UniProtKB/TrEMBL annotation:
SMART domains: TGFB
CDD domains: TGF_beta_LEFTY1_2
One Pfam family in the UniProt entry: TGF_beta
UniProt keyword Cytoplasm, yes or no: no
Organism annotation: Macaca mulatta (Rhesus macaque)
Record's protein name: Left-right determination factor
Amino acid sequence: MRPLWLCWALWVLPLAGPGVAMTGEQLLGSLLQQLQLSEVPVPDRVDMEELVIPAHVRAQYVALLRRSHGDRSRGKRFSHSFREVAGRFLASEASTHLLVFGMEQRLPPNSELVQAVLRLFQEPVPKATLHRHGRLSPRGARARVTVEWLRVRDDGSNRTSLIDSRLVSVHESGWKVFDVTEAVNFWQQLSRPRPPLLLQVSVQREHLGPLASGAHKLVRFASQGAPAGLGEPQLELHTLDLRDYGAQGDCDPEAPVTEGTRCCRQEMYIDLQGMKWADNWVLEPPGFLAYECVGTCQQPPEALAVKWPFLGPRQCIASETASLPMIVSIKEGGRTRPQVVSLPNMRVQKCSCASDGALVPRRLQP
C-alpha cells in the first residue's frame, strides 16, 4: 500500500480552468479521488472528542507551515518600514495565556501582507527558583510554546487553529519570535467590523510522562498580569505597497476585474469551516488563501498565429504554486489518529500568460 502522503497530489489548474475560481465541490472531488475514497469519511464523534494532536504531529505541521511560507515570500522584499502593534495579555490560566491586538486600520490599504511576527519577551528565571528545581538537564530545561489563533464563533463557541510552535529554554531570556502570518490572514477574512485579533499562547512540557520535567512552569513572558510597559507583546506587520511593487503580479484590490484587466493574481479565500464535508475530517487549517489568476493576456500578432497555428489563445494561468500543509483525521486499525499531509500546488504564487500550457517568451507578455 502506498504511503498516505503520496495520495494527496492536488493540482489547482486541472481543478479550475484558467481564470475560473476553485469550488468546494471540485476540491472535495479531488481529495476523494486522490485518497481513493468513494464518499466522505465520517469520523466517530466519540473518537473525535477524545482525539488529541500529539506534540510531534504539531511540530511536523508547523515545520511545513514555515517551509510553505518561505516559498511564498521568497523573492519578495519587505517594505522599508513596518507597522508595530502593541498587544496585551487579556487573560491567563495555568500555562495558557490569551493575547489581544487591536488591528483595525493597522494594515495599510492597497498592500499585501508578507509576514506577521509575534514578539514575546521571556523573563529571566531567578537563580533561587532554578536552584529549588534542582539540576535540570539541557532537554529537561526546555518547554514548548505554542501559538494558536482563537476565533469566537457567532454561537459563542471558540475555535483554535495552530499557527506556530517552538522550544524555549528556562536558562534563556529575551525576545522570542513566532511567525503568525496565517493568523492575520485568517483574521482578514472575518466580516466587518472585525473583532480584535486573539492569539492563544500555551506553554507545555516538551515531553510527557511521569518523569517529565516541570520546567515549563518557569517560563514567563513580560507583562503577564502586570501593567503594560517595557517588554509588552508586539506584533510586527510587514507589507508590500502594491503601487510600488506591482510587478509581483497582484491585482489591485480596489479595482474591479473587467474585460480590460491584464493578467494578475487575485485573492481568493477557501473557507474549510464552511464546508460540511470537512467537519471533523480536516483538523487544520480552518481555511487558506489560494488566490486565482484572472484577467486577459495580450495575443501574438496575426503573423505569428499563422506561423505557429498549433498555439492556442494565450490565457492567464498559474505558473508558480506553493503547497498547503494540513492535519486530517484518519482511521487505521480501528482507531482514529491525526495525520499531517502536504497538498502540492494549492496556493497560486504567480500568474503568467501561456498558450496551451507553454509559457510565452517574456517579450510577448503584457
